[in-house]
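Appendix B, example 12.
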Amino acid sequence: MVKDERRAGFRAEYEHDLERELDGAVEIRPPVMVAGGALLIVAVILTALNLRPAITSVGPLLGEMRGSLGVSATWAGVLTTLPGLCFAAAGLTAPWLSRRIGLGHAISVALGVLTIGLLVRVLDGPYVVIGGTLVATAGIALANVLIPVVIKGSFPARIGLMTGIYTAALQGGGALGSGVTPLLDDVLGGWRAALGSWALVAALALLLWLLGARQLARAAPASVDPGVRPRSLLRNRLAWTITLFFGCQSLLAYIVMGWLPEVFIDHGVSQTNAGLLVGLVSLLAVPISLVIAPLAARQRHQSGWIVTLGAIGFVGMIGLAVDPGAAPLLWSILVGLGMSVFSLALAVIALRARTPEDTAQLSGMVQGFGYLLAGIGPLLFGLLHDLTGGWTTPWTMALAVYAVQMVAGAVAGRNRYV
């Protein structure tokens, strides 16, 4: 009886400390730091590496693709808009799919769909490119929503650290897509082989995920209980604020990934250097995510970090609006630092929810509606460029969105729950 009482006391004390850790009050080191094992961590990282090259690899080759396929700038705008729109549709279905077939299986399906889409989009003309991109981004959308649920459930005592690692891998994959694809284009002799080669990396991620998901199955908190009816967050103001913050950040990110290479090329930067500069934008977020996300998650509020990073990126975007060719390296560095706020946009999804079930619902809503908003950005940017014949007006529109992002982010970063 005494032993049972001691065990109950130890358990209550640990649960109390864990709750305080999730609220950012203290840092604790429980005997078992995470429920997920090393293989699951590696699987999460490799999965994250595959969630951006499908998008960032297109930007540096967009001019070559337009010449080869004989399409307009509006078609290019549609192509760069598709990821956001597809992320919205597929992202909203991710919680439902996870409840139906299980979290691990849902992510396996996502990686399989991504691999197929990457192969299909290089097989034929402009409509096949768009169709394959739709398929690939559907797979990305599912994984985007579900990986934060894995982090919340399998690594509850290290949400900030794992979110930082996941985001760093995500941004690292984006940098590889921008920086390596032009080199692949030269080596492999064309944009089709260069883009299609990323399917091999996605297939490798699927194989490793199938192994890592076994550990996920044993980490019960990581799974969304199919017997629990999810509550709707559609009337929750905080959920909509987080959605607006995430949506504005994503809108700007897809403008940068989709159009910045062509902006630089139009101002005298070579295709290879333009791809490397956009790769640098993503690469800069890797160390920032590894450092800032864990630090910010331990604090009660993340608003100061969000506004500071936003202000840095805002300055860089002013430079792009005034004269992109004046200091492309400096503008890329500033914009890259600003875009690293993405790690905090993901962190607040887990930090503003109490349970894995609520995390799944919030992640689906934020990324579903957020990417729907983001999908407007690249298309509107391209249309404004076509109408004005220049880049100042499109970047001015982006600056207005940046201001909204900082205000919404400051509110989303406050210590509350949905």
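The domain at 31-412 is CATH 1.20.1250.20 (Growth Hormone; Chain: A;). The longest helix spans residues 159-188.
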